[in-house]
Design a protein that fits this description.
Rossmann fold; globular; 7 strands; seven-stranded mixed sheet; 10 helices; alpha/beta
Amino acid sequence: METSQEIKDMVRQRYSEIALQGKDENEASCCGSGCCSIETTNIMTDDYSTLEGYNPDADLGLGCGLPTQFARIKKGDVVIDLGSGAGNDAFIARNETGETGKVIGIDFTPAMLDKARTNADKLGYNNVEFRQGDIEKMPVTANTADVIVSNCVLNLVPDKHGVFQEIYRVLKPGGHFSISDIVLVGSLPQKIREAAEMYAGCVSGAIQKGAYLELIDANGFKNVTLQKEKTIHVPDDILGTYLSAEEIAQFRQSGTGIVSVTVYAEKPKDAPCCAPGCC
């Protein structure tokens, strides 16, 4: 079993490679994992192209939802995008928050940060910045953000509890988040869970849907709401990399589900300085 640091190193290496690829290459994979399929060219991603503020240079096809569409961003808000990649969600958020607001993208992959900063320069955005850092230890002071968004990133992080603690710390009292992520209903076959490549493919690092929502509750958030939910169909030719035909058939009949969820929650207005148990 890989350690947390080994998982992070694998994810960083894979997403460094993805930063140098185009959207077409990435969309033909399991959230950028490289496990190309002849059955589909878009396993998890949603279409951003109709949203105001969309910039095709920033869209690498790596998401599993549209969190910015549901994030209730207002003019003048400070928005933080966790795992900001090439800047796709950050630029959509900037359209919502306007010139009077601010958007901070956080990513730990230098190649992604370079791409995002280049895109921001091209667009002439002086109120969008991208910071290198780990979202388990954000390079942001407490009580900074009105809104936090993230798109298919927390499933890649070993310490999800630590991330939600940090989200709580960084949000202003009364602030909220809208996060799209991959969760599970039932247990994945062990061969998939242990496959290192799948950690960069948004599946093997995912946890049970119920456990995910419990983590949010345990960290003091209120008004937890599922804004969107969709079942992800992983094609047989991708599963065939890890499972036999018989095992795939058993998996299909098991009722196990891979699900994309977009979750909303609020930090209470009378919140203490940090999440329960973190002080």
